[in-house]
């Protein structure tokens, strides 16, 4: 068991907001690093108090190269200053869709190689939230405990709280359909999946949708929305199949480039998602829910925190 008094909870810069929410759930203070940027761009970090012999919790998304490097520095710094245990939660793993390389392609599977970088600075425990692929969990030599935190309960709570009735869950491809089926089973609603073929790195063709969406609200569910290309095609297929309204939902709201504008132009008035990806906040289009509770529950279970 871990004494609450012995825990130091820290976040990288990108995940400060989520770190504060997790701290509140765990009834712990969030310890903010001392940071400074020098004229040449180098980043200075210092722990504001002694962490020797303490159990460290690090919350950090790795959605950019700088956030990934900052998390590596924090883990290595905890080792340098003799933290007793280093426990990492990564709400959003950058490059998570690049977990495989095609034969003879010369591609670097950065989902694996970057996760290995994290493992090689020797944390004791690393948890990931709603991974695109669980392959990254095994990108180490067995010396690190890894966990996959699913946030289905929070997604279900969010859907129920909207007051929407007579809806169908839709997966934009068969790869995600098993998870959508689990959600639908718990919500007691029908579900279906689109036919999707990928013909380039960021280019897909989405085929037809079952008529089960006819005269219903279609909620398109995925693990993440990046450019929104395949999801926007799925929106079209849902309307063609007779849906009266379409809502989109994903855990990780990356929404790169002009994705938000494209959804607005398509007539989408609600995008539901979690607060895993930094700086995505509620507005008249985005409707977010927090994953702080499942993260706190997992940490409590793993560390067996006591007063």
Task: Describe this protein's structure.
The chain has two domains: 2-150 and 293-306, Rossmann fold (3-Layer(aba) Sandwich), CATH 3.40.50; 152-289, Rossmann fold. It has helices at 16-26, 65-80, 110-120, 152-161, 177-187, 229-240, 259-265, 292-303; strands spanning 2-3, 7-11, 34-37, 43-46, 55-59, 85-90, 125-129, 145-149, 167-171, 191-193, 196-200, 203-206, 217-225, 245-253, 271-274, 286-289, 305-306. The model has no long low-confidence stretch (mean pLDDT 93). The strands form five sheets. The protein has a six-stranded parallel β-sheet with strand order 10-9-13-14-15-16. It has a five-stranded parallel β-sheet with strand order 2-5-6-7-8, sandwiched between helices. Helix 1 packs across helix 8. The chain is built from eight helices and 17 strands. It is α/β, with parallel strands linked by helices and 307 residues long. It starts with a strand and ends with a strand. 40% of the residues are buried.
Outline:
The protein has 307 residues and is an alpha/beta fold. It has eight helices and 17 strands.
């Amino acid at each position: 068991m871990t004494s609450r008094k012995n825990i130091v909870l820290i976040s990288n810069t990108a995940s400060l907001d989520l770190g504060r929410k997790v701290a509140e759930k765990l009834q712990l203070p969030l310890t903010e690093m001392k940071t400074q940027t020098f004229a040449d761009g180098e980043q200075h970090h210092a722990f504001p108090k002694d962490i020797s012999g303490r159990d460290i919790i690090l919350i950090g998304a790795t959605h950019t190269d700088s956030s990934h490097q900052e998390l590596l520095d924090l883990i290595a710094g905890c080792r340098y200053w003799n933290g007793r245990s280093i426990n990492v939660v990564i709400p959003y793993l950058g490059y998570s869709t690049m977990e495989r390389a095609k034969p003879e392609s010369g591609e670097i599977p950065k989902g694996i190689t970057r996760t290995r970088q994290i493992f090689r600075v020797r944390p004791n425990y690393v948890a990931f939230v709603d991974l695109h692929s669980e392959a990254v969990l095994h990108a180490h030599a067995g010396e690190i405990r890894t966990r996959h935190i699913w946030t289905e309960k929070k997604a279900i709570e969010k859907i129920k709280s909207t007051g929407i009735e007579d809806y169908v869950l839709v997966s934009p491809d068969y790869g995600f359909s098993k998870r959508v089926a689990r959600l639908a089973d718990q919500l007691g609603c029908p579900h279906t999946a689109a036919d999707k073929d990928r013909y380039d790195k960021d280019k897909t063709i989405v085929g037809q949708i079952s008529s089960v969406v006819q005269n219903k609200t279609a909620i398109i569910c995925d693990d993440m929305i990046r450019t929104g290309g395949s999801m926007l095609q799925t929106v079209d297929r849902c309307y063609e199949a007779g849906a009266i309204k379409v809502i989109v939902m994903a855990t990780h709201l990356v929404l790169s480039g002009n994705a938000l504008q494209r959804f607005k132009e398509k007539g989408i008035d609600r995008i539901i998602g979690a607060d895993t990806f930094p700086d995505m906040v509620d507005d008249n289009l985005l409707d977010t829910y927090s994953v702080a509770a499942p993260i706190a529950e997992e940490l409590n279970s793993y560390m067996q925190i006591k007063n």
